E3 ubiquitin-protein ligase CHIP
Amino acid sequence: MGTGIQLSQAAKQAERLKENGNLYFGKDRFGAAIDAYTEAITLCPNVAVYWTNRALCHRKRNNWGKVEEDCCKAIQLDPKSVKAHYMLGLALLQKQEYTNGVKELGKALDLGRGANPNGYMVEEIWQEIAKAKYLEWERASTKRSWELQSLKDTCEKALKEKHFLDDFQTEGVLDDVIDFQLKELKDLGEVFEKAAEDDMPADVPDYLCCKITLDIFRDPVIAPSGISYERAVILDHLNKVGNFDPITREALHESQLVPNLAIKEAVQAYLDKHGWAYKP
């Protein structure tokens, strides 16, 4: 019984320390907040929120190594912590571990949608995923472009040597032979131009965009009319405007909305291929 009372007192003290930390954080006194959360962790190390609160302070100080450590511990205690997965994703992106960073941000996004589809964090997480995918694509695109150009130069050089050409200035060669050689070089250029198309900015197909916002889907749902909408947008319409489909004007209730998994997978496939090359 004595042990139980001691644990209860420790938990109360830890909560007071957390509240103190919150006050310090609100005043941008991040060092003091870290000390308060650390004391709370010492008293009750199995409370995930103490770890995520301290991680947030480390994030404000750009101490990303500490952010990663605290978030990993928080996730061990609470695998469904949106903030822990989110900040861990940001920390991994700082290390240019884009694939793992996007993976953690994706977990945070899914958990955030389940907890509060209209919450501010859902949009914030989505924007971070967008930036991360663009950076990942940009890095890979730069590498591919360099490799393609290097290969093109090598192929052109080999083709010229094959026909004993030196910058197209070769004496004693018939015009029709030269034309054939120039055509080969042109065809070669077209092949490499085609190979580089995936690294060019791309317009998002209409079917991957919400009919209301015209923006690419994040969390698509389909109405009985067969039209898909962004979940947060259609819910906002139903709550503020009325219970009807904004396009067909048919009666529509939230319970009739169904996740459009096919479109969601199509969006993911598009982003994986193009890396959000149109840059958000």
In short: The beta strands are 220-222, 228-230, 258-259.
